[in-house]
Specification:
single chain; alpha/beta; Rossmann fold; five-stranded parallel beta sheet; globular
Length: 206
């Protein structure tokens, strides 16, 4: 497929990556394929649920990133891929897959996608969504309790033991690889960054 554009959208958990991705898709007249790194969490079928809840899901090793890189390469070549499906309520990958067809624009999002050299090489535009820590934890708390069946105590404990230290060790340092940093401290700043990103996409494909 000619002129396939791969956009990476990274940022801390709860920073607003999915919201940004959706706004970019809404602003474009092209077909867009969206892939989330979260679906590439490694399978742990051999472990009990209680054991899976104790794993560190914010370390790069928790993802099967090589498979994501392989799928991005295939999509760039115009080939469809079978994307795995991860279920946060059971802390494990399911047996289901999603057929993803190639389109002119591919958006891949995840907290650690800019920390991996293989993924960065496959991206034409690298974006980092920058949000303050208090904003991220509040958004994560609301999301995990409402959508993923977690308790407030569990979310706070996970944030303090793995999310926060892994963010400081891996996510925040990856910001230096971004072509565009999108601040979420104000609607005006975010809108300007989105307009810039959309303009770069349109210029690349026109």
């Amino acid at each position: 497929m000619d002129k396939v554009l791969v956009i990476g959208i990274a940022g801390g958990s709860g920073s607003g990556k999915t919201t940004l991705s959706n706004r970019v898709v809404d602003a474009l007249d092209f077909d867009v394929t969206t892939i989330t790194h979260d679906n590439y969490y490694r399978a742990h079928h051999d472990m009990a649920y209680e054991e899976r809840t104790l794993l560190n899901y914010d370390h790069p090793d928790s993802y099967e990133t090589d498979l994501l890189a392989k799928h991005l390469e295939q999509l760039r070549q115009g080939k469809a891929v079978e994307c795995p499906v991860y279920d946060f309520s059971i802390h494990d990958r399911t047996e289901k897959t999603i057929l993803i067809e190639p389109t002119p624009i591919i958006i891949v999002e995840g907290i650690l996608i800019l920390s991996d050299p293989k993924l960065r090489e496959l991206m034409d535009i690298k974006v980092f969504v920058d949000a303050a820590a208090d904003v991220r934890i509040l958004r994560r708390l609301q999301r995990d309790v409402r959508e993923r069946g977690r308790t407030i105590e569990n979310v706070i404990s996970q944030y303090l033991t793995t999310v926060k230290p892994m963010h400081e060790a891996f996510v925040e340092p990856s910001k230096r690889y971004a072509d565009i940093i999108v601040p979420t401290d104000g609607e005006g700043s975010a809108n300007m960054a989105i307009d810039l990103l959309v303009s770069r996409i349109q210029a690349h494909l026109s």
